TrEMBL record:
CDD domains: PCD_DCoH. The keyword Secreted does not apply. Its EC number is 4.2.1.96. Coiled coil: none annotated. It catalyses: (4aS,6R)-4a-hydroxy-L-erythro-5,6,7,8-tetrahydrobiopterin = (6R)-L-erythro-6,7-dihydrobiopterin + H2O. This is Putative pterin-4-alpha-carbinolamine dehydratase. It comes from Amycolatopsis alba DSM 44262. GO terms for biological process: tetrahydrobiopterin biosynthetic process. NCBIfam families: PRK00823.1-2. It is an enzyme of class 4 (lyase). The keyword Lyase applies. GO terms for molecular function: 4-alpha-hydroxytetrahydrobiopterin dehydratase activity. InterPro entries: PCD_sf, Pterin_deHydtase.
Amino acid sequence: MAEILHDQQADEAVTKLSGWTRDGVTIERTAKLPSFPDAIAAVNKVALLAEAADHHPDIDIRWRTVTFRLSTHSAGGLTEKDFALASQIDGVLDAV
Ligand SMILES: C[C@H](O)[C@H](O)[C@H]1CNC2=NC(N)=NC(=O)C2=N1
């Protein structure tokens, strides 16, 4: 099982991402896409990455604003898996 990151490790890992904030055992990023179809397309790309990683974000879609939340439920905290997928989500969002 993936190791839980300590507070300091998690805070440092967040600084290497773009636009993510940490709230305890969860990190999140909200992005406003140009349109609703763009938002759905981004979510679909993230879905493929999540399946490939076998790690899945909570996703909130409101018109063209999408929030991704990550936590490793099985470990009960933040792990490298969250930060690896967050970095991939940055790749999707920053390419729009
Ligand atoms: C068996 C499989 O690896 C687990 O159910 C995975 C699937 N996706 C997951 N996603 C997230 N975010 N946390 C998990 O603990 C998790 N567990």
